[in-house]
Amino acid sequence: MPLSETGSLSINQNEESDTDFEKTTINLRRLSRRYIKTRNSLVRVFLAELLGTFMFVFFGCSSVAQYKLLNKAKNDSASFLLVNAGFGFGILAAILTVGKVSGAHLNPAVSFGIFLVGQLSLLKLVIYIIAQFIGAFIAAATVYVLYYNGLTTFGDKMYSLETAGIFGTYPRPELSIWGGFFDQFIGTTLFVTGIMSVADKIRDPLPNSMSAIMVGFLLFVVGNSIGYNAGFAVNPARDFGPRFFTFIAGWGSQVFSAGNYYFWIPLVAPMFGSLAATIIYLIFISNHLH
After folding, report:
1. What is the largest CA-CA distance in the chain?
2. Is 6 strand, coil or helix?
3. 199: nearest Cα among 217, 185, 215
4. Which residues, other chains included, contact 215 with Cβ-Cβ below 8 Å and sequence gap of 6+?
5. Distance (Å, rounded) from C-alpha 96 to C-alpha 284?
6. Which of 34, 229, 230, 248 is a good FRET partner for 172, with 20 to 30 A between their CA atoms?
7. Residues 193-204: pLDDT tens digits?
8. Burial of 199 per CB tally in 10 Å (0-12, 13-18, 19+)
9. Predicted local confidence at residue 18, as pLDDT
10. What's 118-148 look like in SS3?
11. Top-confidence range, 1-15, 20-34, 206-220, 221-235
């Protein structure tokens, strides 16, 4: 990696230069662009959403794994704030990484809301959602491998719902079906309403770094506010991708039947929450800007 004129490291070198120095170095940027490059915008956003969702879910589910393992070890440092921070900072890191390519939706409910306001085509909506589910699934598999040795400490309960909660979200025993639905609906409504203010192109666009901070803090607040009931999924991909992984990885059908078949709620309720958020944002904010 060459030095710039100021002496600092720079990756924005002239790709057409052919100095003796460059002939003796390995330029991964040049090599990758020669053999792995696409000009198809749909492929670019697919790859970006897949990577971004992977990062977000990996950081989030890893924080849940640490929380559960620390609790099992009776470590006083275990706190649910660890989980909230893991998802909040995880989404911040993902937005900073892929935001300039795909907008870093990382959530079918967010993509659906942006589709409803006419800023995303139907084809792109489908591509975004597929990428998000795949990214979340791969993230869960990676967390499983990373914490496999820790999971074995649960013994006969390694494939119980207690450990399944590292990957998917599950309701508390006292939570009713409709209570769970409202939990996901109101959480997603508030979350997507906040995101609309960041994504709305009618308003002055925010720098990518500021958008990342706002969304990360917003998810952290949502976790602190509604995490008790069912773990604040507010994201169909974040919940179903890891849940499907646990289904095929050894936990079996209990991941779908648990909580009176709760699994459909984090899939459906956030989409209704996204619709409500879009209507609320248009009526209360966007329609009055111009």
Report:
1. 71
2. coil
3. 215
4. 91, 92, 95, 194, 195, 198
5. 29
6. 248
7. 999 888 776 666
8. buried
9. 52
10. CCCCHHHHHHHHHHHHHHHHHHHHHHHHHCH
11. 221-235
Residue 279 to residue 58: CA distance in whole angstroms: 32
Amino acid at 157: K
- How far is Cα 87 from Cα 103, in angstroms, rounded to an integer? 18
49 vs 43: CA distance, rounded Å: 10
What is the rounded distance in angstroms from the CA atom of residue 39 to the CA atom of residue 250?
Answer: 40
pLDDT band at 23 (very low <50, low <70, confident <90, very high): low
Per-residue CA distances from 64 to 112, 144, 164, 244, 247 (Å): 27, 12, 10, 17, 18
Question: What span, in angstroms and rounded, lies between the C-alpha atoms of 266 and 187?
Answer: 11
Per-residue model confidence (pLDDT) at position 22: 56
Q: In the block, which residue shows the tokens 């609790």?
A: 71
Sign of CA dihedral 200, 205, 206, 207: positive
Per-residue confidence (pLDDT) for residue 6, from 0 to 100? 39
